[in-house]
Amino acid sequence: MISRDRIRQIRAESDSEHRTHEWADRIIDELLTEAETRHAVDFAVRGMTDAQGRHLAQRLATVQRHGTPPTAAELDEAYDLLVLLLAAGAKYGITLDDWDWVADLPGTCRDLIRHKHR
Question: Measuring CA to CA, how many Å separate 83 from each of 6, 21, 27, 55?
Answer without folding.
Answer: 21, 34, 24, 11
